[in-house]
Design a protein that fits this description.
heterodimer, A: mainly alpha, two-stranded antiparallel ribbon, 5 helices, B: 25% helix
């Protein structure tokens, strides 16, 4: 497989995080503002715990970070998605540099038919 | 072997790698066409590959298993999209579940290999493009994510319409 396991997992987390409309809405709010988890929770017809869970998924995907301020937890966008795209491609490049080197070895070691 | 060029497009998540081998085109083609040769270079030294099925025809399937140092197996597959021996091969590479069926949750990579004669040797151009059907539009907007809040709004539109096919069409005709 082309993608290294770590990178593939990262992409998987990202896709999963973005696959839910509530999470996309939370993300949208965090881009515009730095809401606290409790303020976010006020905006949705669901429990505080459920909203917290959504935020945790976005956090695991590297899309937002949480920062404690007093009694509140502020949520802001992480701004590292470009860096992640870079890492995914860099890893793909490293994988295939390895592959073409091994191809050259095979060309030498295995006589052509 | 020498690497002629490496080009990465971070917006499109594509990579183009051009290499030259001191071997005839037919010989280089065997690296792909002979499963026993393929498995010698496909997996990294830490994860040797075993090619299980190898049906290198358009619409055909190649399946393989990578075995890690701890004995853990990772299964993968190719869906072959085009084959023109000894010049070109196109396939989609993805992960499989334990039972060998494709895992749709995982991202896939489209691979295009193009071989041309270069004196006594062979030039091989490899193009890679990440794709994951319905998710790909999202991925494309990754780069714009940090600076364009409206990208998130657009994502909702993409997710409610099937943008995948259109994306594929535009990509392959423009590149």
């Amino acid at each position: 497989m082309v993608v290294g396991e770590i990178a593939a997992e990262e992409i998987d987390l990202l896709f999963h995080a973005l696959s839910d409309s509530t999470r996309r809405d939370i993300l949208r709010r965090c881009i515009q503002d730095e809401p606290s988890v409790s303020r976010l929770a006020d905006g949705y017809p669901m429990s505080f715990a459920a909203v917290q869970k959504h935020v945790a998924l976005l956090e695991r995907a590297g899309l937002v970070t949480k920062e404690r301020r007093g009694r509140e937890q502020l949520v802001r966008t992480a701004g590292d998605s470009v860096g992640r795209a870079r890492r995914v491609l860099d890893e793909l490049e490293a994988d295939w540099r390895g592959r073409v080197e091994r191809m050259a070895d095979v060309l030498v070691e295995v006589p052509g038919a | 072997m020498s690497i002629v060029s490496v080009e990465k497009d971070y917006d499109r998540l594509s990579l183009t790698l051009i290499v030259e081998f001191d071997a005839a085109i037919e010989r280089v083609w065997q690296l792909w066409a002979d499963p026993r040769q393929l498995e010698r270079w496909w997996g990294p030294p830490t994860h040797p590959a075993t090619v299980v099925t190898h049906d290198l025809v358009p619409g055909g399937v190649v399946t393989y298993v990578l075995i890690g140092p701890d004995g853990a197996k990772s299964r993968g597959w190719w869906h072959v999209t085009s084959v023109e021996p000894p010049r070109s091969l196109g396939f989609i590479d993805g992960w499989a579940n334990e039972d060998g069926t494709p895992n749709p949750e995982m991202p896939t990579t489209r691979v295009q290999a193009q071989l041309t004669e270069r004196g006594p040797g062979t030039r091989m151009e490899l193009r890679f493009l990440f794709e994951s059907r319905e998710h790909m539009e999202q991925l494309e907007r990754w780069g714009a994510f940090d600076v364009l809040p409206q990208a998130v709004d657009q994502m909702d539109d993409v997710l409610t319409t099937d943008g995948g096919e259109e994306w594929e069409k535009s990509t392959y005709t423009s590149s």
